[in-house]
Amino acid sequence: MAVFLVVFLVVVVLCFICTALLRWNEVRYRKKGLPPGTMGWPVFGETTEFLKQGPNFMKNQRARYGSFFKSHILGCPTIVSMDPELNRYILLNEGKGLVPGYPQSMLDILGKCNIAAVNGSAHKAMRGSMLSIVSPSTIRDQLLPKIDEFMRSHLSNWGGKTLDIQEKTKEMALLSSFYQIGIASDEKSESLKTEFCKLVIGTLSLPINLPGTNYNRGFKGRKNVIEILRKIIEERRASPSTHNDMLGGLIGDNRYNLSIEEIMDQIITVLYSGYETVSTTSMMAVKYLHDHPRALQELREEHLAIRKHKGPDDPIDWNDYRSMKFTRAVIFETMRLATIVNGVLRQTTEDMELNGFLIPKGWRIYVYTRESNYDSCLYPDPLAFNPWRWKDRSLESHHHMMLFGGGTRLCPGKELGIAEVSTFLHYFVTKYRWEEVGGDTLMKFPRVEAPNGFHIRVSSSQ
Ligand code: HEM
Question: Could you say which residues bind heme here (predicted)?
Fold first, then answer.
C-alpha cells in the first residue's frame, strides 16, 4: 500500500511539473496576434513529435489550428505555413523582411559566402555567378558532354552485380559534380570525397562544437575541403591554360569578380545542393520504375530510340536531352511522389504581419510544400505513380508546383539536376535490367533514405 502511495504521489508530482512546464512555455511565447498553435516543451519544443510523426504531426496540427500555425521545432520558434497561396507569397517576397532560415550549423559549415547565407546585393551577385555556370547554354556546350562521359564510365561495369543503389547514386551525384567543376585527378577527388561527406553530416547535426561530435567533424571536413580547393584554384590561376568547366567559369568571370573565398563557397554550394537531391531522385526513380513496368517500358523505348541513330560510343547531346520528354515526366513524378524536398525555411528580420497574424523578429517560417505534392486538385489520384500527368507541360509551371522552390531563390540548378538524372537513366535502362533484392526499408521523412541501403541485382540487357 505504502509503495503504491509513493508511486501515485510521484506520478502526480511529475504530471504537475510537466503541465507547469508546458504551460510556462506557452505563456513565454504569448503575444497578441500570433497564429494559433502550441510551443511544446521548453528548449525542445515539439521537435520530437515533429521528427517522430513527420507529415502526420503537420496534418494533425493543421486539423486543429488551420494551415498557418505556430510551433517550436528544431530549436527555434517557428510558423508552419501549409497554404499554397501563402507559401508562394512568402517565397516571392523575400526582400520584405524575410531571409533564408537554415540552421546555424548548416550555414557555419557551408561558409559565410554561401548563397543561403547571403541576402540583398550579395545574394544577387552569388546567384548571378551561379546562374552563369549552370545556364542552359553552359549545360549544352560544357557540362552535358562531361556528365555523359562520367555516367558512361560510372555505369560501365554494373552487370552481374548486386549493388546498393543508394550508395551508387550518391557516389554518382558527387563524382559527376567533381567532373563538371574540373576536379578530375583521382587522388584529389578521393580525399575531397571523404572530407565533403564529413561536411555534409556536420550540416545536419546539432551545433555542439566538442571533439568527437558530427558538428566538430563537419568543421574539420570544411577546413580540409577548403584547403584542397584553395590548392586547385591557385594551381589554375598560375597556369596559362583555360578550362571549359565550372571552376574555369568562376575564375575567369569578370562580371562578378568573385574572391577566392567566394569561389570556394560557391563550389561547396554546387556540391552540396546537387548531392542528395540528384542522388535521391535517381534512387527513387529506379524504385518507381521497377514497380511500374509500363512506365519502365515507355522510358526504355524513349532511350533506345535515341541510341538507334548512334554508335555504341556516341555521347548524348543537348537535342537528345531535350527529346527525353517521358524521362522528364518520370523525374518530376518521382520528385513529387517521393517528396525529395519537404519545404524551405525562412526567417523574419523584423516583426511583420502575415496572413493577418504577427510574426515576431527572428522567428522561422517553415514553408512546408510537401502537402501540395498530394493535392488531388492539382494531381488527381495523388498517391499513384503516374508520369503521364506531366505530359501536359503546363503542370511544370503551375504556380503551386514547388518541387524546386520559387521566387527569388528558385533552384538555379533545376535544369542541370534534371540533365544529370536523365543521363543516368539513359545509360541505366539501355544497358541493364534489374530486380530488387528485397527486405530494404525506405524512410520518407525527414529525408528520403534507405537506412541500410537499397539493394538491387543488375544484369546486362544484351
Ligand atoms: C534535381 C534536384 C534538385 C532539387 C529537387 C532542388 C531543389 C531546390 C529547392 C527546393 C531550392 C529552394 C531552396 C530555398 O528556397 O531555400 C533550391 C535552391 C538551390 N539549388 Fe537546387 N535542387 C536540385 C538540384 C540542384 C543542383 C544540381 C544544383 C547545382 C547547382 C542546385 C543548386 C541550388 C542552389 C545554389 C540553390 C539556392 C538558390 C538561392 O538561394 O538563390 N540545385 N533547390
Answer: 411
Is the distance from the beta carbon of residue 299 to the nearest atom of ligand 1 less than 6 Å? no
Is the backbone of residue 124 left (phi > 0), alpha (psi -120 to 50) or beta? Answer: alpha
Rounded Cα distance between 90 and 99, Å, is: 10
Write the single-letter amino acid at 134.
Answer: V
Count other C-beta atoms under 10 Å from residue 356's C-beta: 8
Query: Sorting pLDDT into bands at 50, 70 and 90, what band is 27?
Result: low
Residues above pLDDT 90, as percent of the chain: 79
Which residues are 358's β-sheet partners?
353
Exposure of 296 in the CB half-sphere (CA atoms within 13 A):
16
Nearest to 87 by CA among 71, 69, 68: 68
What's the pTM?
0.94
CA of 48 to the centre of ligand 1 (A): 27
Per the listing, cell 493543421 goes with 62
Is any ligand 1 atom within 6 A of the Cβ of residue 422? no
Report the residue count for the chain.
462
* 24, pLDDT greater than 70: no
Nearest to 133 by CA among 423, 320, 420, 413: 413
Contact 355, 68 (CB under 8 A): yes
Helices (H) and strands (E) in the chain, counts: 18, 10
pLDDT tens by residue, 216-266 = 999 999 999 999 999 999 999 998 888 999 999 999 988 999 999 999 999
d(CA 151, CA 423): 7
Inter-CA distances, 216 with 212, 223, 368, 457, Å: 7, 11, 29, 38
Mean pLDDT of the chain: 92
Query: Cα-atom radius of gyration of the chain, to the nearest Å?
Result: 24
Q: Supply 111's cell numbers.
A: 561558409
Q: Is 101 in the pocket of ligand 1 (CB under 6 A)?
A: no
Q: Three-state SS for 347?
A: strand
Query: What percent of the chain lies above the pLDDT cut of 70?
Result: 98
Please write the tens of the pLDDT for every residue from 161-192. Answer: 999 999 999 999 999 999 999 997 777 889 99
| Ligand 1 centroid distance, CA of 164 (Å) | 25
Bond prior to 446 in cis (omega within 30° of 0): yes
Would the CB of 100 count as within 6 Å of ligand 1?
A: yes
